[in-house]
Amino acid sequence: MKVGAGLRSVTNRRVFAVGDAAGGAQFTHLAGYHAGVVIRQAVLGLPAKARTDHIPRVTYTDPELAQIGPTEAEARTAWGDRLTVTRAEFHHNDRAQAMGEAEGFAKLLVARGRVVGATVVGPHAGEVLAPLALAVSARMKVSALAGVVLPYPTLAEVAKRAAGAYFSPKLFDNAALKRVVRLVQRILP
User: How do residues 36-59 score in pLDDT, each as one tens digit?
Assistant: First the structure.
């Protein structure tokens, strides 16, 4: 069945489709999201359209692979040189080390200071993707993700570290900031 952004049939406006019947990706969580869009329209009479840019995808292999938003190649096509890619490795994460599963990474795609996509490869990648899914869905600034306080030790800190990596070049390649740091170091014993 062909449907528009509101998940209504293009041939009969009284018919809605969700999940696999709506076409596109075939995920249980997508069908649940579609149901919410349809309920807002059909039951509550509110305008609603389905988005696809914030639907997470997870492959439950060893290691797990989780992704949200565009791939890096797709993001480079869309944002060009306005795209910044950051990365954090699981082997720097204390929880991953304690579990003996420290292989993997989290990669963030940031455009105009906002998280537009992410990839996580490693133990429990689907769980680590959760805060990144919120960031993409809510169109959050990377600073909000970098500033969140997470319980310690958790694997989700890998995502936060990737967000923090966005600011590293801005801090350490800034000549004025380096001068201020040197000045403070001379003043303080």
Answer: 999 999 889 899 999 888 999 999
Checking if the pLDDT of 69 tops 90, the result is yes
Question: Among the residues of the chain, which ranges form H helices?
Answer: 28-42, 72-79, 94-99, 125-137, 142-147, 157-165, 168-172, 175-187
CB atoms closer than 10 angstroms to residue 184: 9
pTM check: above 0.85: no
Please list, in sequence order, all residues whose beta carbon lies within 8 angstroms of the beta carbon of residue 129, skipping any fewer than 6 positions away: 56, 58, 66, 67, 68, 118, 120, 159
CATH superfamily of 57-172: FAD/NAD-linked reductase, C-terminal dimerisation domain (3.30.390.30)
Q: What are the structural domain ranges in the chain?
A: 1-52, 57-172
